[in-house]
Amino acid sequence: MCGLSEQEQESPEWEQILKGIEKLPYKILNCESSYKSETSVIDDPPFRIVKELGISAPCNRSVVYFSRHGESEYNVQDRIGGNPKLTPRGILYARSLAQYFAGNCDIQIWTSTLFRTIMTASYVKSSFTREKTNLLNELHSGYFDGLTYREIEEKFPLESLNRKNDKLRYQYPGGESYLDCCTRLEPFITTLEKYRAPVKGGGGGNSINPPLLIVSHQAALRCIFGYLLNLTSDKIPYIVIPQHTIIKVTYMDGHNILEYIRMPVEHVENGVSMNKMKE
């Protein structure tokens, strides 16, 4: 078990971490959009919203960094949903993330409203006020929130089978499907593309917004990368978003160029230890 013990959670160091996070300047990311989806079933390729709103193409060389949160207690326990804290290895990844961006305070930071993403980004220094939005939250697991996949399979075998047969459209009871998550993210995609679009300068020329770091969750990032890579919606639930990895996306000549920067921090994926140092 790699979660924090009660003794560790009561330690002065842990209390200082929590107090530091609470003091970070945050505001709610404004993702208002005039676009209204008429259906929860998104056409292929997904996210036609940007074209329909007539948003300018991103600037060449505009850069956005994406990351999943560091290893959480639920990752170790193979549980879904919830609002768990990071494990010590998750904290180590958060510090590695900060080290990667050290010396570059000119970076904007967006996270979900859940503790594990906020904590992951908390060590990264930024001269901007951090922004958070529940649009970036993990796929809502409804009544199954906090259960392990094994518990779901044993207690609700039909639900488990339905999910395996159609992972894209399967909706957790009282929760979301991947298509629901994509629909939820439409206003965020609009905001992201506006951020990546050219900024008109005072002298009439265009400039580029500062680099952007987005810390979110596996399902939400799968939906976002489905859009960025122009994939059909049936591929979205299977996009690989490795943990403890920074994904750098640079827009060049009509294409999003991806670079994966893996941090040498071991973690657990679906209950299985993944030693990034040995890959």
From TrEMBL:
GO MF term list: 6-phosphofructo-2-kinase activity; ATP binding; fructose-2,6-bisphosphate 2-phosphatase activity
GO CC list: cytosol
Active-site residues, record numbering mapped to chain: 69, 138
Signal sequence region: none
Protein origin, superkingdom: Eukaryota
SUPFAM superfamilies according to UniProt: Phosphoglycerate mutase-like (SSF53254)
InterPro entries: 6Pfruct_kin, His_Pase_superF_clade-1, His_PPase_superfam
Protein keywords: Kinase, Transferase
GO terms of biological process kind: fructose 2,6-bisphosphate metabolic process
Positions that bind substrate: 68-75, 116
Stated family: In the C-terminal section; belongs to the phosphoglycerate mutase family.
Protein name, entry field: 6phosphofructo2kinase/fructose-2, 6-bisphosphatase-like [Bombyx mori]
